[in-house]
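Q: Please design a sequence for this.
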């Protein structure tokens, strides 16, 4: 099938007009923690409880996100823009100096997040230059006091109330 396409810049600029939250997705291989910043995160199903994330196929974290892999998603709070930047970079150890707690599945949850979920990878589907990762949620919690960090048109923003 041949699709009429727009270029990546056009799509990024257009889709970037839709504000989103900012998450850090983490997993562990049992010895080392792996993580990256992800804004493509969405609730998928309530019964069973599932979410999905979309991750660039070139990400160094992709090989650790196979079926059954433990995973956690930390929804960053407005005070955590530095973590969004850190986990968005190609650094040797992104977890240096980062306060974490462990979910039941041992995946790292970032302390101070406005919400978090953990579970296991169900499936990994190819989707263009990304993988769509579905996650069965086994635990989740949120902090009513923490306001989320927002991402819009390539920039990070703090929550604004009227």
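A: Design:
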């Amino acid at each position: 099938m041949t699709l009429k396409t727009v270029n990546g810049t056009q799509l990024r600029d257009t889709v970037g007009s839709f504000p989103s939250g900012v998450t850090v997705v983490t997993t562990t291989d049992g010895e080392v923690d792996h993580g990256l910043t992800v804004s493509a995160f969405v609730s998928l199903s309530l019964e069973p409880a599932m979410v999905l994330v979309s991750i660039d196929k070139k990400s160094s974290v992709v090989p650790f996100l196979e079926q059954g892999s433990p995973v956690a998603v930390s929804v960053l709070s407005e005070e955590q823009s530095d973590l969004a930047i850190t986990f968005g970079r190609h650094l040797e150890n992104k977890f240096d100096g980062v306060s974490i707690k462990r979910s039941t599945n041992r995946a790292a949850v970032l302390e101070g997040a406005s919400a978090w979920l953990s579970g296991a990878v169900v499936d990994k589907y190819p989707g263009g230059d990304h993988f769509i990762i579905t996650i069965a949620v086994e635990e989740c919690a949120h902090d009513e006091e923490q306001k989320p960090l927002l991402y819009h048109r390539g920039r990070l923003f703090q929550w604004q109330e009227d």
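Q: Thanks. Anything notable?
A: The two ends are 48 Å apart (CA to CA). The longest helix spans residues 8-15.
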